[in-house]
Specification:
- It contains 14 helices and 11 strands.
- The protein is of the alpha/beta class.
- The protein has 2 domains: 240 residues, Aldolase class I (TIM Barrel); 70 residues, Non-ribosomal Peptide Synthetase Peptidyl Carrier Protein, Chain A, CATH 1.10.1200.
- The strands form 2 sheets. Strands 3, 4, 5, 6, 7, 8, 9, 10 and 11 form a 9-stranded parallel sheet that branches. The chain has a two-stranded antiparallel sheet with strand order 1-2.
- Strand 1 and strand 2 form a beta hairpin.
- Helix 6 packs parallel to helix 7.
- The longest helix is centred in the last third of the chain and has 19 residues.
Length: 322
């Protein structure tokens, strides 16, 4: 599959997830077989006005390539400026968020709010396309009702503005992550576009990837929550696609990844902030293991790197001798 000038090795893409798809997480997904990783959504306004916190979200590594950076905002000129800045930092693709339904984002006219203002959406895409040399993509929802008419309309606008691929999470703005994703809408968008269409939503098992591709005709699948704490999902999904046995997750490797994740967060954010992050994030990797609830409770007390490493080792030994 190609997105503009970028060729993907397989049809698996990591979805942008706020507070989750930072560089250490993306690298793990990439190493597990993900063809393209995507940053958490980055505020174009924050970049334009010089927010240090926003700028720190753009930490990236050559081993992640190809890397897409997702931007959100509501002003065409600011979105174009931010896109050009991110391209200069080494991003391979710029993605535009038309799907975030968080109230503070929608209240400011960004995210899924733009699906009610298609003239502004068009102005944003035209300005960004003019400012970029690298591929430009969008990620959207069904819109504000279940008909999908807004998604189909926005897909057509994106095509006409020179966008290189469209990702669709077929839930409405009001659904959030509740209910069921309407995969039939992905099929409808694909039938109307010659552009690559990326499906997203309700991918819970590796077999769901192949099922979505077969049912919708989409060119690639974007995987989000199923990969949280489970980067091995990508290698398992690839096995399904290639009709190979699905590899199990080795417990020793799981603990090796926990240690590495903790260390990489420390390197990127510093020990105090990384420890605060680990209190909620380290437990991701214990999903499905015995006594995981106890491990997650203890993780909320992490204050130092030593705390984190001691907790990981103790849990590993507990499982080995159970």
């Amino acid at each position: 599959m190609k997105i503009g000038s970028i060729t993907l090795a397989n049809p698996l893409i990591l979805a942008p997830m706020a507070g989750i798809t930072h560089m250490p997480f993306r690298i793990m997904a990439k190493e597990a077989g993900c063809a393209m990783v995507t940053s958490e959504m980055v505020s174009a306004n924050g970049l334009f006005y010089g927010s240090g916190e926003t700028r720190a979200m753009l930490a990236m590594s050559p081993v992640e390539k190809p890397l897409a950076v997702q931007l959100f905002g509501q002003h065409p000129e600011i979105m174009a400026d931010a896109a050009a800045r991110v391209e200069s930092l080494g991003a391979d693709i710029i993605d535009v968020n038309f799907g975030c339904s968080v109230k503070k984002v929608v209240r400011n006219g960004a995210g899924v709010a733009l699906m009610k203002d298609l003239s502004r959406a068009e102005a944003i895409l035209k300005a960004m396309r003019s400012a970029l040399r690298i591929p430009l993509t969008i990620k959207m929802r069904s819109g504000w009702d279940a008909s999908g008419n807004q998604a189909i309309a926005l897909a057509g606008i994106a095509r006409d503005c020179g966008v290189d691929a469209v990702a669709l999470h077929p839930r409405t703005a009001g659904q959030g992550f509740r209910g069921t994703a309407d995969w039939s809408l992905i099929k409808s968008v694909k039938q109307q576009l010659s552009l690559p269409v990326i499906g997203n939503g309700d991918i819970r098992r590796p077999t769901d990837v192949l099922a979505m591709m077969e049912k919708t005709g989409c060119d690639a699948v974007m995987i989000g929550r199923a990969a949280i704490g489970n980067p091995w999902f990508f290698s398992q999904a690839l096995a399904v696609i290639h009709q190979r046995p699905v590899p199990p997750v080795d417990t020793a490797i799981r603990f090796e990844v926990m240690r590495r994740y903790a260390d990489e967060l420390m390197s990127l954010y510093g020990e105090p902030k990384a420890c605060r992050m680990l209190r909620s994030r380290l437990g991701w990797f214990s999903r499905g293991l015995a006594s995981s609830a106890h491990f997650r409770r203890r993780a909320t007390q992490i204050r130092t790197r030593r705390d984190a490493m001691t907790l990981i080792s103790a849990y590993e030994q507990q499982l080995l001798h159970a």
